[in-house]
Design brief:
The structure holds two protein chains of two kinds. Chain A is α+β, with helices and mostly antiparallel strands. Chain A has eight helices and five strands; from the N terminus they run H-H-H-E-E-E-E-H-H-E-H-H-H. In chain A, strand 1 and strand 2 form a beta hairpin. Chain A is globular. The chains are: A alpha+beta, B alpha/beta. The structure holds fe (ii) ion (FE2). The site of fe (ii) ion (FE2) has 6 residues of chain B, from helix 6 and helix 10.
Chain lengths: 183, 395
């Protein structure tokens, strides 16, 4: 009975998409924090050695970001080097998919209880702004306009970096298309 | 199909109206409790507000076994530890909070320790730490504003570390909120006005921010109708029990609305101002509401325009063309503030407060950007934006 409702291919593709997107975002975040003044200014307010995690409940894919100090962020694949200070947890992989495929804004997902915050809210507010800024960089304007509250008019970042991130994104979008086609 | 999704939760029994307090003994016994403790503050006790509650219980053979009446306006971890000591010493088995935001938040924290054990409330900080129901808990609000009787959060100061600790769990919600017009009848005009504008802000922000949903919208609009209709009546005729009850219910309804859909920039600025300049929360809400609506205007035209119906009634709504309604809603709120200023000098600008220095604005703007409420504001607020709103609110 139950198995009849499950489309394994689509679900697997969705999970892969979320995994790949966490990788893309993590790496892009690290790169952007080395160059973008606004991200650095936001991140500087986080304690040195601060560990941020975005994950899917109960033990799904995750992304670990460490604040090295002076606004620089580092992406860790897999396990966090130290206990996590701030964790943003999606209640289900389906909700992570909505946000990471930019169909739902991060702030809307918060407002609608699709994810939980464990840790200092003021840090969560900062990380959300950093993620918004990241999305603006790596997404085509049309998609980014849907994913963030406001599209800023002061984007200054080496085009090389942006195009590199967008290549990753292309890989991710293949999974996205597969999910679309099969659900 | 769009991606709209929401959650709505309010398991609090609301007991409201004439002789509501007399229902307390029945409700306490209904949860198998026999030895309730009252948690309140000196102001509430001094105003004689405990008497009708105590006599209602005595008449029904329910003994209030302990009363703690020393909750300060800015409650702390030490206060919570003291109270839970009394609770245990007197072998209490339930809690009745009587008061405003501070007494209610304190009682929520006391209930955590009374139920889960321990003396250090800091062990339970954050969200989702509490996993099971706590002791029977009842709230009798004595201000009409905070809505704390229907929110699942409590904020307690840790004076040792100079931080405010947030506690969040649906188990913090009381089993029942008892709303009786006798409790707010003697509230001074200035407090009545400020707390009502806090409730108004809860409703307006719930209706215009990102977390709005159909159920919270229904509560928010009803609350706005009640406040718009009754606040001026109460200012002229403070002993009007019917209008007082309307405000008290509006406050609870606005609380239900915002605890399900969150608030926005007015609260972010208000929290920052309150903690830096030690001004009452409701006063800060009244201060910033129109300026923030003006800042957000282009992103909230539709919901803000709709609110004109609830702020000014059907005639004014029908007489105002669609394109002018958002601005008309802001004007209505400004007129209400002008009337409140006439009645009790509730400040409308930062200057009128006389308590905020110009050099403090920068710190207020910075702190507002770290406040959780800013996440649910429709516009992405930058530091410059926050500075600009404060500048407009200056005079
Ligand atoms: Fe408030």
């Amino acid at each position: 009975m139950l198995t009849r409702h499950i489309k394994p291919m689509a679900l697997q593709a969705r999970r892969l998409y979320v995994e790949v997107m966490f990788q893309v975002m993590g790496q892009a975040l690290q790169a952007i924090s080395e160059m973008d003044r606004e991200v650095q200014a936001e991140a500087r307010a986080l304690p040195n050695g601060f560990i941020f995690e975005m994950m899917v409940m109960p033990n799904g894919p995750n992304m670990i970001i460490e604040h090295l100090g002076a606004g620089a962020l580092r992406f860790h694949a897999g396990k966090p080097p130290r206990p996590v200070n701030l964790s943003i947890q999606f209640k289900h992989i389906a909700h992570a998919f909505l946000v990471l495929s930019f169909q739902e804004k991060t702030s809307v997902a918060f407002a609608n209880d699709r994810m939980l915050v464990n840790g200092d809210i003021s840090h969560a507010v900062r990380m959300t702004r950093i993620l918004n800024r990241l999305e603006v960089f790596i997404l085509p304007k049309l998609v980014a306009g849907r994913a963030v509250k406001e599209y800023p008019d002061n984007l200054k970042l080496p085009t090389k970096l942006i195009s590199a991130a967008r290549i990753y994104l292309k890989v991710a979008s293949q999974f996205f298309d597969r999910v679309r086609a099969t659900t | 199909m769009n991606n709209d999704y929401y959650e709505f939760f309010c398991p609090v029994k609301v007991i409201a109206g004439k002789a509501a307090l007399e229902h307390i003994p029945y409700e306490v016994r209904g949860l198998a409790a026999k030895r309730p403790m009252i948690i309140t503050d000196k102001g509430v006790r001094g105003a004689g507000l405990l008497e009708p509650i105590i006599s209602a219980c005595e008449e029904s053979d329910l003994e209030i076994v302990a009363i703690y009446d020393d909750v300060p306006p800015d409650s702390s971890t030490a206060v919570v530890r003291d109270i839970v000591g009394v609770y245990r010493q007197e072998k209490c088995d339930s809690i009745i909070a009587v008061g405003g935001g501070s007494a209610i938040d304190t009682a929520k924290a006391v209930n955590i320790l009374a139920s889960e054990g321990g003396d250090d409330i800091r062990a339970y900080v954050g969200a989702g730490v509490i996993k099971k129901a706590l002791k029977p808990f009842f709230v009798v609000p004595t201000t009409a504003g905070t809505g704390s009787e229907v929110t699942s959060v409590a904020v307690i100061a840790d004076h040792e570390k100079s931080v405010k600790l947030p506690f969040s769990s649906s188990f913090l919600l009381p089993n029942a909120a008892i709303i009786d017009p006798r409790m707010t009848l003697t509230l001074p005009p200035h407090v009545t006005a400020a707390t009502a504008m806090d409730a108004m802000t809860h409703a307006v922000e719930a209706f215009t921010c990102m977390g709005k949903n159909p159920l919270s919208d229904a509560y928010a609009t009803s609350a706005i109708t009640k406040i718009s209709a009754s606040l001026r009546i109460v200012m002229k005729d403070p002993k009007n029990a019917d209008a007082r009850l309307e405000l008290a219910q509006a406050s609870t309804m606005a609380g239900i609305a915002f605890s399900n859909s969150m608030v926005g920039l007015v609260h972010a600025l208000g929290h920052a101002t309150g903690s830096i300049c030690h001004l009452p929360h409701g006063l800060c809400m009244n201060l910033f509401l129109p300026y923030v609506l003006e800042y957000n205007l282009e992103s909230i035209r539709e919901p803000l325009g709709e609110l004109l119906l609830y702020l000014e009634g059907p005639d004014a709504f029908a007489a105002t063309p669609l394109s002018r309604r958002p601005e008309a809603s802001i004007s209505a709120i400004r007129r209400l503030r002008d009337d409140l200023y006439k009645h009790c000098k509730l400040p409308r600008t930062i200057k009128e407060t006389g308590k905020i220095k110009e050099h403090e604005l920068e710190k207020i703007a910075t702190n507002a950007l770290d406040d959780g409420s800013i996440m649910f504001n429709r516009r992405e607020v930058s530091l410059e934006d926050a500075r600009a709103v404060l500048k407009r609110a200056w005079a």
